[in-house]
Amino acid sequence: xxxxxxxxxPIASTxxxxxxxxxxxxxxERYGSTIMFVxxxxxxxxxxxxxxxxxxxxxxxxxxxxxxxxxxxLTWTYRRAWLVITTILQVLQIFSxxxxxxxxxxxxxxxxxxxxxxxxxxxxxxxxxxxxAWRERAALASFGIVDQPGASAPASARSIRSSVLSTPxxxxxxxxxxxxx
Length: 181
Prior knowledge:
Layout: H1 2-24, H2 27-48, H3 53-77, H4 81-101, H5 108-142, H6 153-165
């Protein structure tokens, strides 16, 4: 059972969530999942190298810092709630590293749990953001609104809203449809 939680669950959850985000998400979900996947692969490769404890934590801190900068840039560019949540959780990971480096009495298990639980919460936030983007795209498609390449679902809805809302109800083909369709 210990092998499942230490080896199989991280691999399956990371590959599964990042794969779903790459296949079904919009641009921010694809970028966020790529950032998280590359960080996970590089962290895993560092852990397998069996470096010293101080060297390993410093390298993991560097990876987490690069992820924080990348997620902050994504949060600044795209206004998505899941991006804010993942960035805040990444700040929690950075503070865990800093607190341990400054000499706070954090044992190894607490440190490991803080990094692991926040990492799984980030994957959950990416998955929820992907599902929301996927459902928004499906809802827009059900109204006949086709995705514009490179635009997220709300952006493509905003780009056609002014022309559709300006048409009166009588001018629509179906009299039962309101002016918002």
